[in-house]
Amino acid sequence: MKNVTNFFVSLGYWPSAGSFGFNTDILATNPINLSVVLGVLIFFGKGVLNDLLDNRKQRILSTIRNSEELRKGAIEQLEKARARLQKVEIEADEYRMNGYSEIEREKENLINATFDSLERLKNYKNETLHFEQQRAINQVRQRVFQQALQGALVTLNGCLNSELHFRTISANIVALGAMKEKMD
């Protein structure tokens, strides 16, 4: 600051030229021009600069407040999301446990149904075997009976002559007559 004051004090010692003219000494005129321009800028520009700085300060503070509000909102949303995630995880665990027990129940039901089906098939198989055995036995009986009947017919035809035939018919007629008398 002393240098600036000394500079203006030294200006008072310069001899006046007596007439108006251009000073071509750049080293002497440049500091004077700069000090005048700076003085005018400081005097008139101080208010504008203060207004610009105040506006900038208000915008920065407003941005900081908005950022803080957004941060608080984001924190609230994060907490809500965490709570919802925890709730969903609990529900997922419940569904998982219910799903496992449901799977076990279905597995048991399937095993029981398969066992019942196997029992029915086993019974059906046994019934079918029994039926086939009875059919085979009946077929064998029929063949044996047919063969016995054919053997008896062959034997009877071989042993039966007309006199024996006549006696058998007569005995049967007498037996039928006796039955008829009993019935009357």
Structural notes for this entry:
The chain is mainly α. It has one domain. 90% of the residues lie in helices and 0% in strands. The protein is built from three helices and no strands. It has helices at residues 2-11, 26-159, 162-183. It is rod-shaped, with a radius of gyration of 67 Å. The termini are far apart. It is a single-pass membrane protein. GO terms for molecular function: proton transmembrane transporter activity. Keywords: ATP synthesis, CF(0), Chloroplast, Coiled coil, Hydrogen ion transport, Ion transport, Membrane, Plastid, Thylakoid, Transmembrane, Transmembrane helix, Transport. This is ATP synthase CF0 B chain subunit I. One of its GO terms (biological process) is proton motive force-driven ATP synthesis.
Q: How many helical elements?
A: 3
Task: Tell me the total number of β-strands.
Answer: 0
Shape: rod-shaped
Number of domains: 1
Helix content: over 70%
| Residue-averaged pLDDT | 82
Helix and strand element order: HHH
- Poorly predicted runs are none
Termini distance? Answer: 173 Å
Summing up helix and strand content along with how strands pair, one would put the structural category as mainly alpha
| Radius of gyration from the alpha-carbon trace, in angstroms | 67 Å
Question: Biggest sheet, open or closed, and with what strands and sense?
Answer: none
Strand content: under 5%
In a nutshell, what does this entry contain?
By secondary structure, the chain is mostly helical.
What is the topology?
Elements: H1 2-11, H2 26-159, H3 162-183
List keywords for this structure.
single chain, 184 residues, mainly alpha, 3 helices, 90% helix, CF(0), plastid, hydrogen ion transport, ion transport, ATP_synth_b/b'su_bac/chlpt
